[in-house]
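The instructor's notes for this session suggest beginning with a concrete chain rather than abstract definitions. Hand out the sequence below and ask the class to guess, before any prediction is shown, which regions might be ordered.
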Amino acid sequence: MTEKKVLIIDDEPDICELIEITLARMGLQTQSALNITDAKILLESENFDLCLTDMRLPDGNGIELVEHIAANYAALPVAVITAHGNMEAAVKALKSGAFDFVSKPVDIKILRRLVSSAIAIPPETSNQTQNTTITGESFAVKELKASISKMARSQAPVFIHGSSGSGKERVARMVHEQGSRAESAFVPVNCGAIPNDLMESEFFGHVKGSFTGATSDKQGLFQAADGGTLFLDEVAELPLHMQVKLLRVIQEKAARPVGASTEQPVDVRILSASHKNLVEQVHAGLFREDLYYRINVLELKVPSLRDRIEDIPLLAKQILAQLASRADIQTPPALNSQALKALLDYHYPGNVRELENILERALALAENNVITADDLQLGNKLAEPVIKPTGTEPATESLELQSQEKLAIMKALEKTRWNKTQAAKLLGLSLRQLRYRLEKLQIE
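After discussion, reveal the predicted structure:
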């Protein structure tokens, strides 16, 4: 196997020598340059697997070199060495295409981990099999996949924006699986599901005796994701006091467990997501502006299902095959032409997740292994917005809604032989919600 080669650019010979010795012990070849001009000559004449560059150089700055490499050697990861605490420069470098950054004075352990991650990036031509993918051949999906592939080659934080049910966690998993951290942990957390008084302990862990009930040391989410990826879903739900602590961890690359006297270094790539508009949240004073710029170094927009309607036939086929397999149905049911047309005409406020629910319900209602438009129940869906016809009185509209609701419930109950638990599942309701509707509509 050919030895990996690293290009080091720094105008201080002592730092070049320190990095050369460190990388040689890792079994890597090195070449050094003291300025940008010499670095460009070496880039033209030799092939490298990683570039490490200082930010301040005699004939320019590291950002210029990052942009040059991104434009001319896209497959070459480049990491920048920044002054301690200069996060603005680090963020600018990451936005320009840098793989990662390390601060001066250079911590050898952090440097070794960065280099190991960089040289582990699979080549762009790699045919490695991914566990997670997005179904679809639309332009929007192809564009999204290309962006995921590009961002997977970086260590920069990524903010994933998309409406509920559009597949933000799936996109985060793809970024993780296609990057250098694929063999390490992917730790997803819903920020809105953690009670405020437990949030710090959940994220950073705690030591025994740090508070009442802390009977043993506990590992936090950051420690669990060390070496891998931490996915912060619905990050906009974090309270302001936790936003401050998260910002510090991102900047210092270290986390302090509750009750501990020292911080522990953590090597975690942060991916975050929200269905909310974070810019609006910042303007409203609900989200810290400095944290927004730290987690939104790179941004991915996940298209809603209505923006890729042409993918629905393929998606529906795949979902029905999965549902049939789960239900031990040998041959997945087919959609007739009217059912397919109804799916293509629907607006999907709940995106792919709603399509899955629609098809799961239709599978339970279908007969002769064929799903009809009636089985989809799109006209009777309780969550579907109803457009009020011109001239319809409120009382008339209310009666019409109740009639549709009652019809849908009756059909589900008949289909499940009046098993309320199964009927609630078919309707996408909890048992309590169904009981409330049965009482309200006087269904015995």
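Then share the key points. Residues 394-415 form the longest helix (22 residues). The chain has four domains: 5-119, 139-301, 305-378, 388-444.
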